[in-house]
Sequence to fold (229 residues):
Amino acid sequence: GESVGLHLPTLSVQEGDNSIINCAYSNSASDYFIWYKQESGKGPQFIIDIRSNMDKRQGQRVTVLLNKTVKHLSLQIAATQPGDSAVYFCAEILSGSARQLTFGSGTQLTVLP
Amino acid sequence: GAVVSQHPSWVICKSGTSVKIECRSLDFQATTMFWYRQFPKQSLMLMATSNEGSKATYEQGVEKDKFLINHASLTLSTLTVTSAHPEDSSFYICSARKSGGADEQYFGPGTRLTVT
Fold:
């Protein structure tokens, strides 16, 4: 079946620096990707999404990049703040499937003062 | 808009008892709801897909007789953990997808289940 994996389980950045969280996916039939933020003891919070017909999408302080050639997804957070500390998950949806989400293993982002 | 609630937020029960968890879409109708389980330091694993008015579809390895799902209305799905055991202790999270076919899922805050 499909799988979504992350390159790094933990990431520490200085407050104010930019953060880059990476995600590799294995199924080229995935057509929709989402990044979620999960704080301890809470449900996932939508950050940004991207369709497979795009390679970049920007939100407020966040940018998602999609490289379909190497099946790689990244989340860039500009000017990282203490409130950005959380676990970040990428998730994918297969084209033509029941449109279920498959989550990656997660990256713990810690913002250092 | 697109708020999903879960009740209770946490529950402690004795081994062998059953526990019901509710998932509600507060300001939209959801034909499809999903139930996930998350163990500490791990990712979310889909347990089942719940469609209003029909039987839930369970993922491989999830016992349908142990995790009973009911989706009786467009705003409510329930998950009942029957004959709970300590290994069922986990964080249970639901999500809801708006009726109309859009992909985005809106997640609830989760329910922490502890079985003693």
About this structure: The mean pLDDT of chain B is 94. Chain B touches chain A through 23 residues (CB under 8 Å).
